[in-house]
Structures are given as structure tokens and as C-alpha cells.
Amino acid sequence: MKSKKLSEIIIKNFKRHGFVLSEPDVLLDSEYIIERSGEKFRNLMLTFENEDGKIMCLRPDLTVASCINYLQKKTSSKIYYSGQAYRRSGSKGFNFINDQLGIEIFGSKNKMKDDFKVISTILSSSKKIKRKKIQIKVGDIGLFKSLINALVMPERWRLRLIRHYWRRNYFEELLKRLENNTDIDAVTFDTDKKRFYEMKKMNQSKIIAGRSISEILKRFDQKIKDPRSFSDGKQIVKIIKSFLKINCKLSKLDKKLLDFTKKNNLEKKIFKDLKSIQNLKKLSQDIIFISNFGRDVEYYTGTVFEVFAGNKEIARGGRYDNLLESLGAKKNIPAVGAAINLNNI
Amino acid sequence: MKNIITIGLPSKGRLKDKAIAFFNNKGLKILQSNRERNYFATIENKPDIKIIYLHAKEIIQRLGDGTLDVGISGLDLLNESKKNLQNKIDIKQKLDFGGANLVVAVPNDWIDVQTVADLEEVAFDIRSKRNTRLRVATKYPNLTNDFLISKGVTQYKLISSLGATETYPFIGSSEIITDITSTGKTLDDNNLRVLKDGLILRSTACLLIAKKKNIILKSFLKILLKN
After folding, report:
1. Which residue out of B84, B110, B112 would a mutagenesis test of the A interface target, given it has the greatest number of A Cβ atoms within 10 Å?
2. Are B175 and B136 in contact (CB under 8 A)?
3. For the domain B100-203, what is the CATH code?
4. The whole model's pTM is what?
């Protein structure tokens, strides 16, 4: 079969680059996945109830499944897999089954080196199986975070924007709220304040629906001090929107960012952590940088990329430094990986 | 032979009385069976109409499977039901009774939580500090899920409740609830408060029909829908 032959070519290339086979479980505990790695999977998973009443699912994503495998069975930290991921999609007639060949580097301390390793391995594999013109699009979730941290706004807003970056529709709604300042309500604020002083006299460790009085009052206090109204909302939203429009050749990125910071009166150095992305120039390959990119997967934290053959996406991946910890690792384990989607080849 | 029309009406409480009144006002006098607890009734001079009293939730189910042709039930129950069931049912008219709101409610003393955005933050707090999720008790899991996710609240877990949901936050079964309320008194009496933007659905009783029966019901609906 054609695809079998292609798989063999790709796997051979993975092995040549030092990746070791890992075979993650097909059946996973769905609660574990939702609990640890986010709601995104809730509506996508194919689930069934086992005899104990536990809801199991077919692995919706091979990166998550490989991480679980790594944590539970202590597999090698530089792995490849070949298998299927099972999930629904919004659109009708779409295949439930995704045939994927992927690689992951767990415990990736040297960002620059490992990002390069993953992207170059995927690129060389793609070139072995596709004759069409190959193009890479990259983005960097970290850049967005740097921007948000450099803008003047209440800490709560900062966290909110970063937290919901991957959820596009809701993010737009947040921007609207930021723009119009619809986060204030003076009337109830006064009555709340009265209750605040009453509660201050109560036993602070008393629990109300799972939260201690001290916890509630602390957050209330922060809300008062954290200026809820700030007139610069419009300006901030303008800056964020114009950042998300950056779309250029990787070779032009430096200049683009410089122009952007100048134009918006921001310090140049806010985008200092660009080494990993810049390093990709070594690939001698057409690379397009798009700031508004990699926003549909919740777990990405840094470099994200997609490989296109003609106008078809055939592979994608990125850095996900917090996923292993949220899946239960005792310490932070940075990681990076990517997969080739065989269905698109 | 003429088609028999089967109508499902709520079997209990105010909704039952109002539904009966609705038919009587249209000149369709409902005749109760002599036996008080009988679940069947008829309409005066309309031998081809049969009335069955059912649980409001059941009415939706039976409209979906074709047992009933017409029914009165709540919009909340219809919207909460599965999509493929909803697709089989048409809302002919929203009625002026049975009004109630499905809302998100939190304990009064959570004074730092006024909006859904606050709730979203607190949910993340709970998640990051204790590695557990905010528990939301509800009788309406589908509507609650859709609402919370659309508002960016994702770090929560639903606890399904069959009744007295208002007690859950205070007996350790959940932190917050969503529930249906008409006057707000039950929430208030149980030290709960509705979030400012916590309205999930404005519900009323509705006149519903099985979609497939639309044509057969045409002349009957004319009587029902006239003012």
C-alpha cells in the first residue's frame, strides 16, 4: 500500500535522527484528560462507559497520549510514534481517524537546539515524500505573552488575555470588553464594601462553599486596588490587534518587530527571546512568520509551526512546556514535538 | 377515517392548571375523567382529540418519538434535550405563563464574584491552588455547559442534581449552582445570589408540536393560535 510505504520512509528518517519508538495506549481515562489538559477535548472525544462506570475515550491526540505514556511508563525522552488519533470535528463528513506519524522531545532544556531538531526532522521527512513546493509557517506564542506583559494593564486582565489566547472567539469578546471598559459596576461595589467590613470581623478560616473568608476578602481587596477602570483600554486593544496582523518572511521579522515597537512606543527589548525562531533561518527554506498563529491548541507555549506542501497542511507541531506538568509530572518538564498527518498526503 | 390528535399536558401544579386554562380559553373545554387520578382527558365535542397528562420532561420525549402530536412544556426542558430530539419538535408559540429563568448562582458571601468573568478567575484559582475544579451543581447539564464554555469558563466540573440544588454549596457537594428560578425567593432564602450576567435562558411554557405532524395539525392549530 502506498501509505504504508510512505510511513516506512518517514519512520526510517525519524530513527536516523535518533528518535525511539513509543507506543501510547489507545484507551485513556477521559476524566484524566479533561481534568488535566483542558476542555478543548471534551466535545471532541469518542467516549464510552466501562463496566465500572468510568468514562473511557479513544486517544484524541497523540501528543497527550505520548506524554501520559512517558509519565506512566518512563519511556525514552526522545520518541516517535506511528498511529491513529480519534476525534470528532465540527464539520460533517470529516474523518474520525487521523493517521499520524510524530516525534516528541520530553525534558527539552535547550530550546533552540530541540526546536530546530524537531522542525528539521519533520521538514526532511516531508521532503522525502512530497515533490510539491514545501513551505513552513511559524509563529511564537511566547511573543504574544511578552507583548501582553509589556503593556500597562491590571494583572487580572493580563492573565485573562494569555489564558484565553487560544480560544479565538472568546478572546475577541475579551478585547471588546477591554475596549469598552465594561468591567465596572459602581453601585453594587458599595454594598459589597459594607459586607466586606462585616466579613472582616468574622472568623477568617470559615469556609463558604469551598472558599475561606480570607481567600474571598483577599481577592475582593485586590479587585478594589487593581484599578478596574483604565482609560487606555482602547489603545491597548489597538496595539494587540496590530501585533496579531504581523505576517512576513522570517528574514524580515527583526525589522518588522522593530517598526512595531517604535510605532507603538514600546521598548525594543520586549521581544528579546527570539533566538529559537531566528535560528530556523538556517533551514534554508521559505519560512513565513505569522504572529496570529498556533492559536487552536491549548497546550502550546512557544514556537509553533505548520508545514505545507502546495496549499495542503501536511504537518504541524510546537513547543508545549507546561503540558507534562499539568498531566501530573512532579516538576516542570519542557517539551517540543510535531506530527505528520498522513491523511493529508 | 379521521386522524386522532394526541395532546400531552403537564400532569402537576401550576403548569397543569394554566395549560388547561389555555385550552378552555380557546373554547376547547377539557373534560376530566370521573376518576380523579386518571391520566386521560378529552375535549368537549371533539371526539378525535385525546389528552394525556405527563411529566413536563416526558412530553418533550413523546413529541420526539411521535406518541404525542401536540404538547405544552417548558422551553428550558426543550433546549436542554438532545439536539436530534429538538430537531423533531417545532415551537408554535411561547405562552404567557410558566415564566422562569435559568441562572448561575453563587453564595451571597462570595462578594468578590459578581460576574461570569469573576467566576472564570476563581475557577482558575481553585484549579491552580488545589488542582481540583470548581463544581457546578445543576439539573441542566447541557445548557450549563454551553453557557459556561461560551463565556470562557472552562475549569469546572458538573455535578448532576435531581432537586434541592440550592443546598449543594452549603453541604459540600458543589461550590456553585445553576437553577431555574421564577421569583428568586428560593435562591435568596438559601443565601444564593444570581451573577449579573448569569442569565442562561429566559424560559416560558411553550405550545409544541411534532414537526412531522405540521400539515395534519393545520386546522387544529388555527383554533389554538387564534387570539
Report:
1. B112
2. yes
3. 3.40.190.10
4. 0.81
